[in-house]
Amino acid sequence: NKKAFVELLFWKSPAAAREMAEGYGSLREDEGPGRRRAPLWTPQEEQELQQLYWKFKEVEGEDVVANILAHLPAPGRTRRHVVKQLVRL
């Protein structure tokens, strides 16, 4: 790329610098852990999440989200996914 020197004039994140070195479009491939998207919540999963929340929210001295994760049948959900979905609901 003959115009790559112009890109070097501006600050780049490590990901952008890697993309410049390896070729544009390399970040679009799901290579890194930060590039994977969380699976979407189905209406059934949302309903089950609400039911688990109402079941465990009154338990004192226990972590509500940890209890939900232990009883949530959907694999691949992290604590962050559950918290974000609860806030959204």
Automatic annotation (TrEMBL):
Q: Which GO terms describe its cellular component?
A: replication fork protection complex
Question: Which ranges of the sequence are coiled-coil?
Answer: none
Q: Which InterPro entries match?
A: Timeless
Which Pfam families has this protein been placed in? Answer: HTH_TIMELESS
Q: Can you cite a GO biological process for this protein? A: DNA replication checkpoint signaling
User: What are the GO MF terms of this UniProt record?
Assistant: DNA binding
What's the name of the protein? TIM protein
